[in-house]
Amino acid sequence: MIFTYNKEHVGDVLMTIVSDSKGAKVTAECKGNVARIFRIDTQETVGWNIFQVSTLFDITGRGQVFLTDQEVAVLNQELQKEGFAEQLINDNEPKFVVGEILELVAHPDSDHLNICQVKVAEDKVVQIVAGAPNAALGLKTIVALPGAMMPNGGLIFPGELRGEKSFGMMCSPRELQLPNAPQKRGIIELDSQEVAGTPFDPAKHWQG
Questions:
Q1: Which residues contact 102 (CB under 8 A, 6 or more apart)?
Q2: Domains in the chain, ordered, with CATH?
Q3: What's the rounded Cα separation, in Å, for the pair 208 and 203?
Q4: Residue 55: how many CB atoms within 10 A of its CB?
Q5: What is the reported pTM?
Q6: Which of 13, 41, 126, 183 has its CA 20 to 30 A from that of 195?
Q7: What number of other Cβ atoms are within 10 A of residue 6's Cβ?
Q8: What is the pLDDT of residues 176-195, one digit of tens each?
Q9: For 161, what's the count of Cα atoms within 13 Å in the CB-facing half-sphere?
């Protein structure tokens, strides 16, 4: 789940992205200050817009924002008040973390993609399909996990690349919009002493 807020350009609206619409046509159901956005074909909820959200709690930020469990509980009360049965489930786990490539095999249907098994926590390994030319066994890099919003506004969801499942993205300095990032392809290369699962800290992880 991704929360975004930009009062200057959008207004006092908290946009909540629940799932990827995968390009399907969507519509909205509005009740009071709540709008449910859902796919027309499956009726699946893909997002919520909460209008006048600053009347519910103090909110600042521009772009992706992270809410406390108490703030999400307030949003759920608002959904319930307007007659919606669904509930929002908060997720405060870091979405940009150090990852370590444990396995790397060539994609069977591509001449430049690799299927990587990437350790993103002490007890968690995810599969990521990547085309970075410098991806290598043992490399430590920064991974954007599902639920992340990239600096350019792109959203990370589980997906597939040429038939192979992918659960995140290994990031280049340019994609992370780091200062003095090389304008070329290639994921960020971290010191071998970095620990998988450590939240991304630009001041620590980039000396560009």
A1: 117, 118, 119, 125, 137
A2: 2-82 (3.30.1940.10), 96-199 (2.40.50.140)
A3: 10
A4: 10
A5: 0.81
A6: 183
A7: 14
A8: 999 989 888 899 999 999 99
A9: 21
